[in-house]
Design goal:
The complex is a heterodimer of chains A (519) and B (483). Chain A is mostly helical and 519 residues long. Chain A has one domain. Helices cover 73% and strands 4% of the residues of chain A. Chain A has a 3-stranded mixed sheet. With 483 residues, chain B is an all-alpha fold. Chain B has one domain. In chain B, 76% of the residues lie in helices and 1% in strands. Chain B has a two-stranded antiparallel sheet. In chain B, α3 runs antiparallel to α4, α10 packs across α13 and α13 packs parallel to α17. Classes of the chains: A mainly alpha (519), B mainly alpha (483). The interface between A and B is medium-sized, with 33 and 32 residues.
């Protein structure tokens, strides 16, 4: 056990962080007043955020080893343990989750009027599930959290969602479930191949035969690709994002879809390096398709929220592109871009939720002239628009730049194609901004109209401000965030480079390589 | 093998739990004449079961498996763990029946007595080390359940259920007897261990004729377990029988069927794993397919749960197919978990039934979460557990079975199983969708009772506890079966 650093704080900081929201959810069960429920949920999420802060301060950035590790025997009959810890890859996601959860409760303050108790219980259980996924060091524990999240998310979309919510909820659930159960088979196969253990660190240190890696990679790919979501299994995402309530969309876009990419980083790449190399070509191509296709589809959207949802497909294409470029810039850019996307798109969905509460429409054509009607809102929205496009000075620029840099290093054509995605991104985002905020105003929403809209109030500014701060913070000084991941990413690249990919016959990969070699 | 000259005290002692239940059953029939209050009978029934449970607990103390009546009856960990399932089954069933049978206007005293007889039949099956004893136990169980299924005398579909169950049950008994006689003809014995020994001695393992005998025996048990294509009776019987009996039947006879299937195949035909697995593998696949796919089309919740229980039998079968003691352990663990989740689900179905309202149609669940949040939350737990989503116990059961299947080299079966379990998610989810995401059509009043609340609390708690801390169950079952 010298490959990990045990938690040396005098309390189990990770366990408390993960399970505090759950404890809050249990207490909520016995409460009646909606106001008190909201307040307690808010306090729980804030407290979770606060008690997790010492992690940042005590984190040792110089090592790739797992830190704050806790280890307890759990199911001895199967050799499964309660084993949690974090490294440079997972640490930032913990904070992304805890911050977004606070904002989710805040933004739902007025939007959720029915089944208030159940809603907040679902949000809190979601938080426990998401945090659990990022800290689990036992594959069984990971799977438990990974799947357990389906239930509250299903309810969030299906109960508090929009018009077409039931369809979206079932689609989301079934897509994810099919992927996950295939991964489950993979996990069990790995359990026996790795010597009757599901300890992620042990499993990562075993060299598996290529044939086994091949099938395991496909099994894991089924789960992670659906979650990311990669083209062509992305179709659940627009429905789920669009129909979910604001808080649900924020969680989905902010954290949930990052788990797929996190799965690649934590399992596929370190455990199955040979197969990863083998499949890297097709995955890069899928990423490029996702970037360009996702962006093109955005041009055709008539629904505000759906457009942002499709832009997620495009942005997550950047993330997988970076991860599978297998160099420091690409991987670090990929991780940072996950964080960025969580912040930007999370904030976007918050803003859409805020304006929807006033207008009750998501159709872009119903808007127009909002810059005059809600100037503060328009001001904040342009910041996010530019961040999403990747304007220098915003966080989006850093992430996308690093990814394109990494992709260029791996294969020039990849960098070129990815860059066109950014141009398209600027196109659809600015056009969206134009249609919403400029052009002729919809007279209904004018101060004298039937449904006058008001500008942001203090609570809403409070919800958005932290994310805006991060947009600029990462944009101007990304090193604060990047230095957390340096050691872990270097280690990951190191494992990757040792992979012996001894030219197995892969017609598809060969074909793609041939094409690329032409450039 | 020492042949004893008479029935010793030990012989009786080993059978104390079964005898207790039979005596309680007889007592209940007498009590029925003395009291009008059915609650008294229910209480006596539960008390009697607890007494038998205590007996089993005391007998657990035996380090070595005990056999009695000239090795016809055996008491080992395997039998004991099944007996625990049967106790759970009957106690929970009684808890959910009291109010329900009154609503159905069918509070007959013999209801509780028959439950006792059926359960003692199952226990004898679990302990049977001889094909004849096995048959006796099976018939005791079957005859009692036939009557129970038809207890709603005034309802046509209940009568239909009983008759259908009886005819197909009789068929399956004939198959069993045919298999037994073939085996006896070839080996000259009905004792399971001796069959195995003789088969090795006469080098008949895998012989076509003995294969035929095994096929007959498997078919007979497949009827009881409701494996496709021998499942035809199940949906009709489950729908027609009183709901509490449906709950009882979906677990008791199924578990008993698995108990004897496991014991006969492992003890008597252990040398023919390749052969019997080659029959069970297609059976398992068809069963999972039929159960999961046809359930998608059901709008009656009892029928849906019937198909769901067929599908679950398919998953459980994976553990038996492996032919390893570990695999058997996984099947038994699954059964224990299945007991909790299935009884729980049926308990909710029963709560919807009240005078003049069937409450069996899916539409009756519309908007239930609005008027009855607690009951809906419980149903949600049961549905997700049946789907096999962590952190519910249903996931643990499936994980264990799949794990053993993969360990034994049946990875493809595990893949097929997970695909069907993903398909089955749809109809379990639909119940949740109706409860949480539709608006209520009419006000639904739930008929609750204290014992019902207890049953629900126990089942839901166990599902969540075993889902997170499965060691409690795993240690018990593994200790019992693997020693």
């Amino acid at each position: 056990m010298d490959s990990v650093i045990f938690n040396n704080l005098n309390y189990s900081i990770l366990s408390w962080t993960v399970f505090l929201p759950f404890i809050g959810a249990v207490i909520l069960l016995f409460m009646r007043s909606a106001g008190a429920i909201r307040l307690l949920a808010l306090l729980t999420t804030i407290l979770t955020f606060v008690i997790s802060l010492p992690i940042l301060a005590n984190f040792d950035k110089s090592t790739f080893k797992m830190q704050f590790v806790e280890f307890r025997e759990w199911i001895p009959a199967w050799g499964i343990n309660y084993f949690i810890g974090i490294d440079g890859i997972s640490i930032l996601f913990i904070f992304l989750t805890t911050i977004l959860s606070v904002l989710c409760v805040l933004v739902s303050w007025k939007a959720i009027e029915t089944k208030v108790k159940e809603f907040h219980i679902a949000i809190l259980i979601m938080e426990t599930g998401m945090l659990g996924v990022f800290v689990a060091l036992d594959f069984f524990l990971f799977y438990l959290f990974w799947e357990a999240m389906l239930i509250p998310m299903f309810l969030l979309i299906g109960v508090w969602g929009g018009q077409n919510r039931v369809y979206a909820a079932i689609k989301f659930f079934l897509y994810t479930l099919v992927g996950s159960v295939l991964m489950l088979v993979g996990i069990v196969v790995l359990y026996f191949a790795g010597g009757n253990t599901l300890d992620i660190l042990v499993l990562s240190s075993v060299q598996y035969p290529f044939k086994l890696q091949f099938w395991l990679f496909l099994a894991f790919f089924a789960a992670f690709a659906v979650k990311v979501p990669m083209f062509p299994v992305h179709t659940w995402l627009p429905d789920a994002h669009t129909e979910a309530p604001t808080a649900g969309s924020v969680i989905l876009a902010g954290v949930l879809i990052k788990m797929g990419a996190y799965g690649f980083l934590r399992f596929s790449i370190p455990m199955l390096p040979d197969a990863t190399k083998y499949f890297a070509g097709p995955i890069l191509v899928l990423s490029i398709i996702a970037i360009i296709y996702g962006a093109l589809v955005c041009f055709a959207q008539k629904d505000f929220k759906r457009l942002i949802a499709y832009s997620s497909v495009s942005h997550m294409g950047f993330v997988t592109l970076g991860l599978f470029a297998f160099n420091t810039q690409g991987v670090e850019g990929g991780i940072l871009q996950m964080l960025n996307h969580g912040i930007i798109t999370g904030a976007m969905f918050l803003m859409i939720g805020i304006i929807y509460e006033r207008t009750h429409t998501r159709v872009i054509a119903d808007y127009g002239g909002f810059a005059k009607l809600v100037p503060w809102y328009a001001g904040l929205f342009i910041v996010l628009t530019l961040a999403s496009i990747g304007l220098p000075g915003t966080n989006g620029f850093i992430g996308e730049f690093l990814i394109i840099f990494g992709a260029f290093k791996a294969k020039k054509i990849l960098g070129v194609l990815a860059a066109t995605g950014i141009i398209l991104g600027a196109g659809y985002m600015l056009w969206l901004y134009q249609r919403i905020f400029f052009e002729t105003a919809n007279s209904d929403y004018e101060p004298a109209g039937d449904h006058p809209v008001r500008d942001l109030d203090r609570r809403e500014v409070m919800v958005l401000l932290p994310l805006i701060v991060f947009v600029f913070w990462i944009g101007f000084y990304p090193n604060v965030f990047l230095e957390y991941m340096h050691a872990s990413v270097e280690h990951l690249i190191g494992t990757m480079n040792q992979a012996t990919y001894a030219g197995h016959d892969n017609i598809l990969a060969k074909f793609i390589t041939e094409i690329f070699n032409g450039y | 093998m020492a042949i004893e000259t008479g029935i010793g005290l030990l012989d009786i002692r080993v059978m104390i739990p079964e005898l207790t239940l039979i005596c309680v059953g007889l007592l209940l029939m007498l009590l029925d004449l003395l009291t009008k209050k059915k609650e008294v009978l229910a209480a006596v029934g539960i008390a009697g079961t607890l007494l038998a449970l205590y007996g089993t607990y005391k007998l657990y103390g035996f380090a070595e498996p005990q056999s009695a009546f000239w090795d016809m009856f055996v008491l080992d960990g395997y039998a004991n763990v099944f007996k625990i399932i049967f106790y759970l089954n009957i106690i929970l069933t009684i808890c959910i029946s009291i109010k329900y049978m009154a609503v159905e206007k069918a509070s007959y005293g013999e209801y509780y007595a028959l439950l006792m007889f059926a359960t003692s039949g199952m226990m004898i099956m679990a302990s049977a080390a001889d094909l004849i004893i096995l048959y006796l136990g099976l018939e005791l169980m079957a005859l009692s359940t036939y009557i129970l299924a038809g207890l709603l005398r005034t309802q046509r579909r209940s009568n239909e259920a009983a008759l259908k169950y009886f005819f197909l049950g009789a068929f399956s008994s004939a198959f069993l007897l045919y298999g037994i006689s073939l085996t006896y003809g070839l080996t000259g014995t009905t004792n399971l261990r001796e069959i195995a020994d003789t088969l090795i001695l006469i080098q008949m393992n895998g012989d076509p004729i003995i294969y035929l005998a095994v096929i007959f025996i498997i078919i007979a048990f497949s009827f009881k377990i409701a494996l496709a294509p021998f499942h035809m009776w199940a949906p009709d019987v489950y729908e027609g029988a009183p709901t509490s009996i449906t709950a009882f039947m979906s677990i008791g006879p199924k578990a008993a069927g698995f108990a004897v299937l496991g014991r006969v195949l492992f003890d008597a035909f252990g040398g023919m794993q390749v052969q019997w697995a080659s029959i069970l593998v297609p059976l398992a696949i068809i069963t999972m397919a039929v159960g999961s796919i046809i359930a998608l089309a059901q709008t009656n919740i009892k029928r849906m749960l019937a198909y769901s229980s067929i599908a679950h039998a398919g998953y459980m079968l994976l553990g038996i197919i492996t032919g390893t003691p570990e695999g058997l352990t996984s099947t038994v663990s699954y059964l224990v978990i299945y007991t909790f989740m299935n009884i729980g689900a049926f308990a909710i179905v029963i709560m919807l039934r009240r005078e003049g309202f069937q409450g069996e149609h899916l539409d009756d669940y519309m908007g239930l979460a609005k008027s009855h949040p607690a009951a809906s939350a419980l149903m949600l737990v049961f549905m997700f557990s049946l789907t096999g989503i962590p952190p519910t116990a249903g996931f643990i059961g499936k994980f264990y079975v799949f794990m053993e299947a993969i360990n034994a080299g049946y990875t493809y079966l595990a893949i097929i199983a997970v695909v069907f379990s993903a398909i089955s998610a749809f109809f379990y989810l639909r119940v949740v969708v109706y409860m949480y995401m539709r608006d209520p059509k009419e006000e639904v009043v739930l008929s609750s009772s204290p014992t019902m609340s207890i049953a629900l609390a126990v089942t839901a708690t166990m599902i969540l506890i075993l889902g997170v801390f499965p060691s409690i169950l795993l240690n018990l079952v593994r200790f019992s079966i693997l020693g």
